[in-house]
Amino acid sequence: MTIWSPIVWDVNDDLVFKALADPTRRVLLDALFAQDGRTLGELEAVVAEHTEMTRFGVSKHLGLLEQAGLVVTQKKGRVKLHFLNPVPIRLIHDRWIDKYTEHHVVALAALKKQLEESP
Amino acid sequence: MSKDIQVFRVYIESPIQTVWDAITSSEFTTKYGYGGEVAYDLVAGGDYRALTTPEMKEMGMGDVAVTGKVLDADPPHRLVQTWVAAWHHEETTLTWDLKEYPGGLTALTLTHDCTDAPNTAQDVEGTGDAAMGGGGWPWVLASLKTLLETGHSMPGAGR
Predict the structure, then answer these.
(1) Which ipTM value was assigned to this complex?
(2) Using one digit for the tens of pLDDT, what is the confidence trace for A81-97?
(3) Domain co-membership, A45 together with A75
(4) According to the model, what pLDDT value does residue A118 have?
(5) Interface A-B: count of C-beta contacts within 8 A
(6) Are residues A54 and A79 in the same domain?
(7) What is the 3-state secondary structure (H, E, C) of chain B?
């Protein structure tokens, strides 16, 4: 069994947190959130707007996101399309953010937004 | 603007046949997600109905929450069906793909094609408040995972 096995993918939240810890991978997730079902080439173009990276590099980041379950790929004809998978985030939400803490998180998110928007 | 084609994947520590049964039989569907019974005629052209729960009926819904037709059934690996929510009257297509891995792990991938069905797309994407019924597929699949892995319904899920 290789490290790429889904047995390993499933296991824990570590992979999700690790995947989210990298700015390029967050750019990729944001890009898929804005428009889903994209090819490697399209995503490479998005990353290029932020940083210099080879197609191989982008592909590696997508591999990590897929390993964490945050991205699911589907073949359509000869191209591979990348989709954002919201389920792992839901699982983490259910596990870590219960009904008692949720309103704090919402309040913090609102505060962050306010701070970021003020000049 | 919600996405036309939405893809959801969850890994469940459960045999593939159990996951299949959990999608297609009321014995399970009453214990996770929105908790309604289902009726599947698992042949191409067969009818699909998801019934409302007593709670939904109290809210003024009729007996049937979702209707559809089975387009392709290959137990326990693949199920393609249409899916029409009674409150929207938009025809959409669901594809359930199940893949089993060694060690009794099953990957369930649900693809919901909501092309030309913006209201349905918004309801199922799961960006709403789960406590208010807005959890969509991510919440339904999370509760399915909880049920099959622990034997208990997730709080707030099922009926």
Answers:
(1) 0.78
(2) 999 999 998 888 777 66
(3) yes
(4) 67
(5) 59
(6) yes
(7) CCCCEEEEEEEEECCHHHHHHHHHCHHHHCCCCCCCCEEECCCCCCEEEEECCHHHHHCCCCCEEEEEEEEEEECCCEEEEEEEECCCCCEEEEEEEEEEECCCEEEEEEEEECCCCHHHHHHHCCCCCHHHCCCHHHHHHHHHHHHHHHCCCCCCCCC
